[in-house]
Amino acid sequence: DVVMTQPPLSLPVTLGQPASISCRSSQSLVHSDANTYLNWIQQRPGQSPRRLIYKVSNRDSGVPDRFSGSGSGTNFTLKISRVESEDVGVYYCVQGSHWPITFGQGTRLEIK
Amino acid sequence: EVQLVESGGGLVQPGGSLRLSCAASGFTFSNFAMHWVRQAPGRGLEYVSVISSNGDNTYYANSVKGRFTISRDNSKNTLYLQMGSLRGDDTAVYYCARGRTTPAWGQGTLVTVSS
To answer: Where are the alpha helices (DSSP H) in chain A?
Structure first.
């Protein structure tokens, strides 16, 4: 199975400041169809997961444009340009290029 | 809009069985592989099982292999997870998810294994 690594596990950030969450995969996530199926999931406290970004950099409808995704191959990043209080929660990267889908351990974003 | 609604969870004794369902809508269900994912209390998301779009291929996490069976009914747009020989460490919220991009997540269904 593809191992997804997400350092750090906890990320304290000051309101209004940027945040960056990284994700590394144990093998390339470029699928044979040329797509890279790396998605970012947000889970706010007490809520179900919600997808923010799919295929590395495509923002879901309704997701604020302060969220952006980038990367290629085995290294990926989720960036929040200016953290707001509603961004508190756990962020997971999940790869869908290889079965089974696998998740990073999650990065807990908290307000400093 | 893609919607997934999980059901069938509850309290079950160790060694017991339970069948979870996931009702899908808003997309052509038979075109997509489907997954079960779980989240134990205070823990991260963990893959449980996946089934191909036509049901011919299935994969299981080692922790559930031989105890859980994934299936689907494309005529009913429904995914299932038959869970047997349940253990305390199977206690979790169980979610279903779609395909390679996992666009939608339901509210999940809570399975509690306890005597």
So the answer is: none
Mutate to test the interface with A, among B101, B105, B107, B110 (most CBs of A within 10 A): B101
Kindly tell me the sign of the dihedral angle through the C-alpha atoms of A103, A45, B41, B10.
negative
- Which of the four pLDDT bands, split at 50, 70 and 90, describes residue B103? confident
Interface contact A98, partner B, CB < 8 A = no
pLDDT of residue A7: 85
| Average pLDDT estimate for B71-99 | 97
Residue of A nearest to B107 (CA): A48
Which residue from B minimizes the CA distance to A38? B101
Beta carbons of B44 and B33 less than 8 angstroms apart: no
First to last CA, chain A: 35
What whole-number distance in Å separates Cα of residue B5 and Cα of residue B23? 5
SS3 letters for B1-65? Answer: CCEEEEECCEEECCCCCEEEEEEEECCCHHHCCEEEEEECCCCCEEEEEEECCCCCCEEECCCCC
Note whether A38 contacts B: Cβ–Cβ < 8 A. no
Average pLDDT of the residues in B8-19:
98
| Nearest chain B residue to A107, by CA | B44
